[in-house]
Amino acid sequence: MLMNYYRKLDKRKFQFDFLINRSEKGAYEDEILALGGKIYRMSAMYPWKYFDYRRELWEFLNKHPEYKIIHSHLEERSYWPLAIAKRAGVPVRIAHIHNYYPLTLDPKTPFRQWFRFGLRRRGIVTHRLACSNTAGRWLFGKAKFEVVTDAVEIEKFAFNPAKRQEIRESLGVKNDAVVVGQVGRLVPQKNPLYSIAVFGAAGRLLEESGCRLDDLIFIGKGALEKNIETEAGNSLGKYQSALVVSPVANIEDYYSAFDVLLMPSRYEGLGMVAIEAGLSGLPVLASEHVPLEANVVKNIKYLPLKQPWAWIMELEKLIPRSDEGRIKTSEKAMFMARKADYDVKSAVKKLEKIYEDLAY
Fold first, then answer.
1. Residue 222 to residue 289: CA distance in whole angstroms
2. Could you report the per-residue pLDDT of 34-56, keeping only the tens digit for each?
3. So what's the architecture of 2-151+343-359 in CATH?
């Protein structure tokens, strides 16, 4: 999201510099430097590193009084840098939420709650932004916030028959195969093991009727990668396969290669993957935990996680569309996304206006 906006930002007025909390090189660092941005590093945001982080950020802000806006994208952890920025006298302190976290038995939950309510203390935040109303209400409660869409370069996601064939060949997938995809981190939140169970059961049903549900492709990394391999071996039919692909820069080409996208998330702040997939004319089966705001281009069928049979029956109904049908659906989706302000070429002007109003 940040890079989509940064590429289109009017550099004559504004410059993004990035302060990050990891030592390893990030995917966009070379591009950031080429666009004129600076990259600063400091301690990771772990509880045992709190005092190191606080000292390093305090020293940084005192050394760099030229920064008038701190725009934090750290969910509830924005409390850390923005509280320090307030003490250092930074005049504009923006908290921007891109996800939300329901109450669970996760050991991180008490910390999230403490930071979330800490962020609501008077004066720490001067402006509140959110990817959706769902995420904004979770972090900011009754305080006023503004929705800034996770806008994209819409044309880039148009269905592309040539790329569909190219990606399928690179993955060793037959051109007439029915391919189901899931995109996102391979972690419990995204629920990839549910996709395997549904895909396997639907595939066995289809085999009986002479049809095939061939390949399930995950794009992402995470703690459940080995579990996916094990579950695939136990759950998939004899003609089915599951493949994990590391995160790619050309995700739009993979949407063209898929026939349907699964999104059985346990929670989501918005679900940008569903919007991107829709721009490619791709139908999405999503859990009830994906916000309705993600259905921008009307491509999502919402299904309850407690009814896996409903997912199986929906997958059984989905027959790949012709290229001509996908192209028409994709064109309609792009029109709808522009109307909903998801085209970054126009959405960036809203962000620039926010900066102008706050900084001058």
1. 20
2. 999 999 999 988 888 889 999 99
3. 3-Layer(aba) Sandwich (3.40)
